[in-house]
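@here heads up, posting the sequence + SMILES for the pyridoxal-5'-phosphate run so it's all in one place. Ping me if the SMILES looks off, I pulled it from an old spreadsheet.
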Amino acid sequence: MDSLARKFGTPLYVYSADEILGRLDMFAAAFKGIDHLVCYSVKANSSLAILQLLNGRGAGFDIVSGGELQRVLSVSREAAERVVFSGVGKTYVEMDLALDADILIFNVESAAELTLLAERAKKKRRLARFALRVNPDVFAETHPYISTGLREHKFGIDIGAARRVYREAATSRWLTPVGVSVHIGSQIRSAEPFGAAMGRVAKLVRELRTDGIQIESVDAGGGLGIEYRAEYSFRPLEKVTEYAAAMTATLGGIPVRLLLEPGRFLVAQSGALVARVLYVKKNGKKTFVVTDAGMNDLIRPSLYQAHHEIVPLLRRTGGKRVVDVVGPVCETGDFFARDRELPRLEQGDLVAILDAGAYGMSLSSNYNTRPRPAEVLVEGRKARLIRRRETIQDLLGPEVNLG
Ligand SMILES: *Cc1c(COP(=O)(O)O)cnc(C)c1O
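bot reply: prediction finished. Complex structure tokens:
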């Protein structure tokens, strides 16, 4: 990573293709013998190169905007048949784009959205295949910002009201109900809530079948978590196997195709953000390590109080020190670690902020007029630049100079 940092500069996102494909293989192994399709959640890391990598293995995609659809289509037109479109605020423009592309399925989140979808489908004279995203009212232990499966959240339709909405939709010429979907949140590390949600979905699917609505697919959403802390061991294959077992047990052998929307689990641990130490400074009792990466590059610590392991790329001798690792952005919330015991770091050293492959670059911004980092994909012994570092010209380009 040293040589990559020298070659491409810092801050730099580095991803491992082998790690991503390895995770995809774990899903294949855990769901072996079960009719399923992995639809990678594009928002976790929307890099075209990563989409290409996964498309090459036949993966589908879970998108939440027209922009993400265009990303997928730019990788492969044919991939549209493996696209599920989620999101609580789809515009008619986005619906039209997805209808034209003939995507696999719309995950619809409200009765009002269904009405608009029927209108657009009629206008285009195309059938819209849809699933209702139901809200199973399952509590999942995670950060409140990324928990989505409770009645009080903005996502989905109350599972108790879903049957009626399906029955009404079934009368439309332009709507084809083909699935039921759920997504209960993100960074969920126990298999239990996934099983509970599937149990409720299975009940709904059976009810819909008695209503004459043939449900072909169940979309279990994403949300499978990882361990960000080095002190917890994490065996990803065991995790995904447990997850598969919990869901298939409660689905109870209903003959449906299972759609899975992992994001974080596939890409988080494939990536690191490499940064250089600009300064080490002391304020009172505290020592601050100021890096050239900031919260605009990786916002998870600031936004979710998320933990990321930080490792120096050069191991210096001497004891550890308790430090705050912070960025250059003018916000007190701009930190990667607080009161963290780390090996000695000096000006000019490189650090890797680990497990930054998911919700890192995709959540980055240009705050403080900071160009976004470059991204590199390592495949075997080859490292390729997959996104060049932004320039100030890239940032100023869209603006109108009134002067
Ligand atoms: C964000 C999201 C996902 C992916 O979540 P992860 O926690 O990254 O697996 C899947 N489906 C939907 C609908 C989402 O909003």
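MO: The chain is about 30% helix and 25% strand.
MO: One more: The radius of gyration is 23 Å.
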